[in-house]
Amino acid sequence: MVANLVEMSAASPEIAELHRVFKLQKQACRQHPMPSADERIAHLDQFRRVFVKYIDDLAQAASDDFGSRSKDETKIAEILTSLESLKYYKKNLRKWMRPEKRHVSAIAMPASAKVMYQPLGVVGIIVPWNYPIFLAVGPLMCALAAGNRVIIKMSGFTPRVGETIKQMLAEVFAEDLVSVFTGRGEISEEFPRLPFDQITFTGSTNVGRIVMAEAAKNLTPVLLELGGKSPAIVHESFPIADAAERISFGKCWNAGQTCVAPDYLFVAPGKTQEFVSEFTAQVSKMYPTMLNNPDFTSIINDKQYKRIQNYLDDARAQGAKIIEINPANESFENTRKIPVTLVTGVTPDMEIMKNEIFGPILPIMEYSSLDDALGFVNDRQHPLALYYFDWNSGRADYVAKNTHSGGMCINEVMSHVGIDDMPFGGVGASGMGKYHGREGFLTMSNAKAVLEKPRFYAMRFVLPPFNKSVHKIIKNYLLK
């Protein structure tokens, strides 16, 4: 105890403030451990009012943080989807909160059994930079619906969004219910060390390992959403023009800086050039210019920009063909914008095929058979998403049953994330745990089993000594 006090006295003001708020929220949990449905719905209503008020501020802050980010993409992908989720939580919250009656086995009779869903307590949310609004307020709404108190750690790479969300939430929530921390360095390191009742982390696999290791010291459960290389597979019978249109949406949105963006593509033998042509036409139609086009987003920072360029340099050095889609022949020198780029002739040894790209780059490979493509996917770590294009529902079902991924779309990319009634999360290396929908409510709740006995106490008949007639009946029952 003395050592802890000495350590805290030497901590920075930011760390001391984090510990103060955490202690405050834990105390508030003890004083009011089970908020009613009305209270939770009121919290969601408070959030909605202030969220709508800040729509334009949030979109501008995101654009400022990225250097240039489409405000329309921000409003559609981060704000509209969040508002839809809020409606869903409000509609279903009372039903989810109801205790569930469960079956009681004969040996425990007479009794009644139920499962009641209690808040976990104080939930920590660690937010990434790529969708800093959606990935802050989405888990927040889920946590509030489950009756928890929340501390949010915003990404240091999106400081304007972080400060805007901090200001926004402080307008409607007391700090013992919701609190936001920003910044980088020691506060990011200290955050997962706190004994939260649950931590939700979205980000890279490497940082996810660190968060999980720190959380394990307190036996804190974690929900990890980590991404990975999400494949897209186009069956030979599927129209290439349709595939190009749908895949380009996912690859170009937020300049490919999306955890569920299609990361690489499989097409049938001889279909590569047709796909390149159709994809180029589709991208050129969406972005006739890119350099000063507010619809086309920049890479978030120099570090990420250099990482993507290094992947391209490595692929080029190993013989891959780099196809830039640059309709207006613009120069992107001294900017962080990268034109949408296709890469053919790739091999598994290239860095672009070893690592999640997280940018507007799409490697293309050809498969000899559908099972060949599935074998390639299954030989690697499970992706966060898998996309299959085929009008034949039987083959699509075969692909679904013979691959593992956090989620899957058939004839579409990415849109499953915005479906409120479906769980979202990874499997294996792409993450653990699910949120969104009822699964999110369950993840952020404690399912407490409650068994209630009446006045009549039947167990007295089976107490020792174990030579009564009832014991003989039990033994005979077990032998049946």
Radius of gyration: 26 Å
The number of distinct structural domains comes to 2
CATH H-tier superfamily of the largest domain: Aldehyde Dehydrogenase, Chain A, domain 1
Strand order of the largest sheet: 10-11-12-9-8-13-14
**Shape verdict:** globular
Report the helical percentage.
40-55%
CATH topology of the largest domain: Aldehyde Dehydrogenase, Chain A, domain 1
CATH architecture of the largest domain: 3-Layer(aba) Sandwich
The number of helical elements comes to: 17
Q: Major sheet: size, sense and barrel closure?
A: 7 strands, mixed
β-strand percent reads 15-25%
Description:
The chain has 480 residues and is an alpha/beta fold. The protein has 2 domains: 2-226 and 433-447, Aldehyde Dehydrogenase, Chain A, domain 1; 231-421, Aldehyde Dehydrogenase, Chain A, domain 2 (3-Layer(aba) Sandwich). The protein has helices at 2-9, 13-31, 37-53, 55-66, 71-97, 134-145, 159-170, 186-190, 205-216, 240-252, 272-286, 302-317, 351-354, 370-378, 393-401, 437-443, 469-479; strands at residues 100-102, 112-119, 122-126, 149-153, 178-181, 198-202, 222-225, 231-234, 264-267, 321-324, 341-344, 361-366, 385-389, 407-410, 431-432, 445-452. Strands 10-11-12-9-8-13-14 form a 7-stranded mixed sheet, sandwiched between helices. Strands 5-4-3-6-7-15 form a 6-stranded mixed sheet, sandwiched between helices. A 3-stranded antiparallel sheet has the order 1-2-16. Helix 3 (37-53) packs antiparallel against helix 5 (71-97) and helix 10 packs across helix 11 (272-286). It is globular and about 90 Å long. 42% of the residues are buried. The model is unreliable at 1-6 (pLDDT under 50).
